Amino acid sequence: MAPSPRASSFFSGVLLLFLLSVALAPVPAAATGVFRVRRKFPRHAGGAGEEAEEHLAALRRHDGRRHGRLLGAVDLPLGGVGLPTETGLYFTRIEIGAPPKGYYVQVDTGSDILWVNCIRCDGCPTRSGLGIELTQYDPAGSGSTVGCNQEFCVANNDGVRPTCSSESPCQFRITYGDGSSTTGFFVNDLLQYDKVSGDGQTTPSNASITFGCGAQLGGDLGSSSQALDGILGFGQSNSSMLSQLAAAGKVQKIFAHCLDTVHGGGIFAIGNVVQPKVKTTPLVPGMPHYNVNLKGIAVGGATLQLPTNTFDSGRNKGTIIDSGTTLAYLPEAVYKTLMSAVFDKYQDMTIRTYQDFLCFKFSGSVDDGFPIITFSFEEDLTLNVYPHDYLFQNGNDFYCVGFLNGGLQTKDGKDMVLLGDLVLSNKLVVYDLENQVIGWTDYNCSSSIKIKDDMTGFTYTVDAHNLSSGWRFQWHNSLVLLLVTTIWSYLMF
Ligand SMILES: *[C@@H]1O[C@H](CO)[C@@H](O)[C@H](O)[C@H]1NC(C)=O
Ligand SMILES: *[C@@H]1O[C@H](CO)[C@@H](O)[C@H](O)[C@H]1NC(C)=O
Ligand SMILES: *[C@@H]1O[C@H](CO)[C@@H](O)[C@H](O)[C@H]1NC(C)=O
Ligand SMILES: *[C@@H]1O[C@H](CO)[C@@H](O)[C@H](O)[C@H]1NC(C)=O
């Protein structure tokens, strides 16, 4: 299903960012870099009727593809939405090679490797409806191919593959939920990034990293009018860019994001956040994604009565926290109980269903008219979701609920909770992989945070930045990565 022309005008945001850290000493020091990220979907669709419906459909298409990518071992319960055609929610620009070239990649906490389309690749897009110029990576430049018997390949494949000969490259293949895929081989090249070197200051820096060169794209990935050059996985595995930079002593395995849907702007940083302080909950060990243990849900302060074991999801444990997913998905029993509590005051309200979203007319402030939903996690970490976060405005006085019925179904038939941007926005979310915890706090994402470089002891302020309109012309300085701060804003149509 081709994206409608209208869908591409819905996206538009911009981000920018900046970040921090230090490192003057000859010892390797944790660094910080900068990512500029754009958001594809505004939180509020401007129009009503068809446009609003298209917007809702686009959100689900995005998440549909997303789920396939996120949960390799999990079956998707999404149905009736057509093939996902969106590439993702955020993208940033990175620079690779010497001399460096820029590539636009989706930032994805649900996958592990960085890959970009290779030169002469089969099925790769040459144009993008996102208004960006696509670039194919040429490994014949400063890069070198990684062999299947080299350490990176052996470690990430749990040993040498039987088919490996000394001449063979280290190959990868990623298959997504909608049937699209990327196949290619690993290369090694220089990643260029801006290391934060002072309050609001950065210094160009570089590191050698191993990443995928996409030789063949299958399915929608190559044909999408919202095509990008690749995907930057922010997952936990040793093959991720974050892990490689950490292994090289360039950064600590800690990153954070703060996405401001109220004013635009935000932060996405790699580094040890010391201000604000966040309370944390343990990550469920051994899971490929960022899973935590959800204990209960309260609406307006009253705890929902849910069957015991509601959140015990069998083999795939816990609740997935994923900033690359737009909405939030709940198992049916949880969804129904939650919705009846949210609408308890409005027994007579007419609630209509559009594309599986519950929608209704309401005038006045939703924050005054609807309750706060509170999720409670292991070790007393709570997460408040405010009405302006979970209710999307779709035209005048018309709102839809961003929670959807249908958790992610695992292979053993259990439903998992998946919490995306809907609940993560307007909070500073910290992923501390060094200590295997994740935490958050309500935060003004238009303000600033402080990050400490534990090797040098320096602490720098990282401010939110806003590129807004004209962002392409403002991207003139070097490129980025690592201690990343992101900011975005939305253009309304
Ligand atoms: C990479 O960084 C080193 C040390 O900072 C610098 O000397 C070198 O010129 C950089 N290389 C490139 C290609 O930018
Ligand atoms: C990942 O790398 C760390 C440090 O290099 C190593 O101790 C660990 O065993 C690796 N994990 C896997 C699954 O290879
Ligand atoms: C970003 O820029 C736009 C347009 O200049 C402005 O309306 C918006 O308030 C800015 N947001 C922040 C967080 O500064
Ligand atoms: C958030 O921070 C920005 C920048 O410091 C400030 O201008 C704005 O007033 C703050 N918003 C709130 C609600 O405090």
TrEMBL record:
Membership in a protein family: Belongs to the peptidase A1 family.
Gene: LOC101783146
Annotated S-S bridges: C359-C400
Domain Peptidase A1: 90-441
Organism of provenance: Setaria italica (Foxtail millet)
Protein name as catalogued: Peptidase A1 domain-containing protein
Molecular function GO labels: aspartic-type endopeptidase activity
Record GO biological process: proteolysis
Active-site positions on this chain: D108, D322
UniProt entry keywords in alphabetical sequence: Aspartyl protease, Disulfide bond, Glycoprotein, Hydrolase, Protease, Signal
Record InterPro entries: Aspartic_peptidase_A1 (IPR001461), Pepsin-like_plant (IPR034161), PEPTIDASE_A1 (IPR033121), Peptidase_aspartic_dom_sf (IPR021109), TAXi_C (IPR032799), TAXi_N (IPR032861)
Residues of the signal peptide: 1-25
PANTHER family per record: ASPARTYL PROTEASES, OS02G0473200 PROTEIN
